[in-house]
Amino acid sequence: MGVSKSESFSVAHNEMASLFKALSHPARVAIVEYLLSVDTCICGDIVEVLPLAQPTVSQHLKELKNANIIKGSIDGTAICYCINPDTIEIIEKYFGSINKQLKNKCC
Amino acid sequence: MGVSKSESFSVAHNEMASLFKALSHPARVAIVEYLLSVDTCICGDIVEVLPLAQPTVSQHLKELKNANIIKGSIDGTAICYCINPDTIEIIEKYFGSINKQLKNKCC
DNA sequence: TTATTATATTGCAATATTACGATAAACAAA
DNA sequence: TTTGTTTATCGTAATATTGCAATATAATAA
């Protein structure tokens, strides 16, 4: 068939996979790191930083927003994007927990 | 066009994106968590745990191996898979660093 | 050698993602 | 209102991913 069998997996596994999928493109990694590098959250110039056209950047931003990795608030004509620290913490803790479990293993 | 413009991004951004891509499917998240849950590393029964056919599981395992998230060593007829703790640590540190930088921010 | 068992590869159909031009929508300024 | 600025959406082409039947490969057992 070829259809992704996501219904066959647990909600938890799907949720984690969705987070990673949102970060699975270099443009989206670059966006996150750019948001991290600027002091303020007024980030209407992401398009100028990336080697992609405006509609493409808008699409990537939407995916990051849908995954709750970034937040966007309207600021007049512009939109103010910033990283959602809660989601970053969820991911960090996930890998921290994996690491802890690995410490008690042979491998 | 539609081709992924990965050459336009830095090696570092591509490398992180590749790690996340390897974890961007619920089956691959499930595999990692299963490897974590079993005591030994002899894991030739992953196929029986997942709701996917053997060639599909083999394909997912290959992707995790290529991304260095798991290691596989031959053990007679079977193959012994286990998580690569080095890669997990790289990811954990990446998000730890993001978290640290976020602490010194307004947002 | 001939099974048997375990994993990998091939080939292909179904679907998803990526990218961007064109266009729309929303708002501010003139 | 009209004009300019900023971001989003639509439509579509190119490419990538997912899943599996069929088959291949590799090692062991009989």
From TrEMBL, chains A, B:
Q: Is Nucleotide-binding one of the keywords?
A: no
Q: Which domain of life is it from?
A: Bacteria
Q: Which Pfam families match?
A: HTH_5 (PF01022)
Q: Among its keywords, does the record have Transmembrane helix? A: no
Domain HTH arsR-type span(s) in chain numbering: 8-103
Which regions form coiled coils?
none
Alphabetically sorted, this entry's keywords are: DNA-binding, Transcription, Transcription regulation
Recorded hits in InterPro entries, A to Z, give: ArsR-like_HTH (IPR011991), HTH_ArsR_DNA-bd_dom (IPR001845), Metal_resp_trans_reg (IPR051011), WH-like_DNA-bd_sf (IPR036388), WH_DNA-bd_sf (IPR036390)
Q: What is this protein called?
A: Winged helix-turn-helix transcriptional regulator
Organism lineage reads as:
Bacteria, Pseudomonadati, Bacteroidota, Flavobacteriia, Flavobacteriales
